[in-house]
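Same chain as my last thread, 357 residues:
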Amino acid sequence: MNLGTNDVILVTGATGFIGAWCVERALRTGARVRGTCRDPKANGKVAFLKALPGAAERLELVALDLTGPADGFERAVHGCTAVLHVASPLTPTGPATDEYYVKPAVEGTLGMLRACDSESGAGVRRVVVTSSVGAVGFGNDKIFTEADWKDPKQFTPYTKSKTLAEKAAWEYYKEKKPKWSMVCVLPGAVLGPALSGEAAKGSLQVLSRMIGRMMPMAPPLTLCVVDVRDVAEAHIQALVKPEAEGRRILCCADHATSLLELSGMVRSMYGQYGYNPPTRQAPYFLMWIVSYFDAGIGMLLPQMNVSTRYDVAPLRTVLGVELRPLDATVRDGCDSLVLHGVVPKLGDVPVQWAPPS
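reply #2:
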């Protein structure tokens, strides 16, 4: 589908790490954008969105509760031609329960799809749902593709929420055969610059713990990293590319990078200014003990000592997205942490990244 100035793109979870960049990228298409959040009147939490280029003329913010009644979804989707359903609970400090993760993810996804099928969603032509490579699986024994689904034995609360929400979306799509087409984008470990301090605190904990020396040793974990700006680009391309219809597009690097390697990159960039990222890898048994006190570590424990590879060729061949170099993702992510005051500015460290203006 083509996007023009008369189109309205709905972005759910607009204040989140990925959602905010989807709003920014959607505004650059020239279309009007409607973003959902918990409280559009909370200026302290939405001011950064209103400051984005084009926002004053073409951005509208509305309230949406992922577990709320159907009319909330219908109001959000009314008059829209395209939907980016990004919203999903992620906060690592949240309780590791189905009630916290799974219920809003599944109910929110189905609520949005039903709204697109209602009278209010009559103009919707394509829906893009944000899933996760966690819904595909992880392990050392194969290269995972869009045809794979996670083994239920591997579930953590977050990956369970993403898997069940995506499965529910595809079941709805195949059963109802709606007039609109659907694509799922499955990001890997999303890093890069955050547009707000709140997003930086919640989604860049790996980098903030490194640069702020909150982890004395790097956990034995590898990540298939992707830049948040490339994730936003993938969402927009998933809207406009006809050949993306009905696809699950894995969105990350095709190889894993260890946290120790990431820490080394941070040290090479910021060590001279007084930052002291870890230089050693923690043994697994230590992480197992720490997991009892740190919910974030506990959720990552099953993936430690695992180096997963994904077939990400469709990201380039179907969507035409080329990923940024990892060092740019790491540098800009750390810069945003300093810029937003999530980690202290030491010495004369230069902050090269700045929000779009």
